[in-house]
Design goal:
Blueprint: H1 2-11, E1 23-34, E2 37-45, E3 56-57, E4 60-62, H2 70-82, E5 90-94, E6 98-99, E7 105-113, E8 127-134, H3 135-140, E9 144-151, E10 154-163, E11 166-168, H4 170-187
Parallel strand pairs: 1-7
Antiparallel strand pairs: 1-2, 1-4, 2-3, 2-8, 5-7, 6-7, 9-10, 10-11
Helix pairs in contact: 1-4
Length: 191
């Protein structure tokens, strides 16, 4: 699956939001294989962070001046937040930049495979929890609903996912939906 996903991602033209006036940020969209089932790895942010307190997100954050690239941002932030070492991450491609509606960030998502099991070191100042959600669950539509909201001067329809009492919404849910579209394309490629 890794090679097929890499192929589909390499054939996409990434939509970039650079020059949009939004602050740059990046996240990893980590995938792991647990007993033959693929999962996405999420975090729940602490109440101590400046933005998106208590929300479910992917590991990542704002670009630092020291970051050479947004990929470096995603890797650095993943290390700082959950102790995920860059050498243990295999980035296979990028998704489209995704804006936040309340904090004025442009998030650049990097799809990556990570080992499982993994001994995470959670930075409690930033993260309360690390958990996985089966990709099959996200694809099933169970626990998914649509919600409308206003972004700028447009009405936008987005998905909200609920898994074991955790709510995935906003920019993270938009990244999930984009990922699922790519995952389904990769799943349809014959070996």
């Amino acid at each position: 699956m890794k090679d097929r996903l890499r192929q589909v991602l390499s054939l996409r033209r990434k939509r970039r939001l650079s020059g949009s006036g939004l602050a740059e940020a990046a996240v990893l969209v980590p995938i792991f294989d647990k007993a033959g089932d693929y999962y996405l790895l999420f975090t729940r942010r602490s109440q101590l962070v400046a933005y998106h307190k208590g929300q479910v997100s992917f590991p990542g954050g704002a670009r630092s001046e020291a970051d050479v690239s947004l990929k470096d941002t995603a890797l650095r932030e993943s290390w700082e937040e959950i102790g995920l070492r860059a050498r243990d991450v295999e980035v296979v491609g990028e998704l489209d930049d995704t804006p936040t509606t309340t904090s004025n960030f442009s998030i650049s998502p990097f799809v990556a495979f990570v080992p499982y099991p993994y001994e995470f070191t959670i930075n409690r100042a930033e993260i309360d929890e690390v958990f996985g959600v089966p990709i099959s669950f996200l694809l099933s539509g169970v626990g998914r609903r649509e919600e409308s909201y206003i972004f700028g001067d447009q009405s936008v329809v987005g998905y909200v996912y609920e898994y074991e009492g955790r709510i995935i919404w906003g920019a993270t849910a938009r990244i999930v939906q984009q990922f699922l579209d790519v995952w389904q394309q990769a799943s349809g490629i014959q070996q």
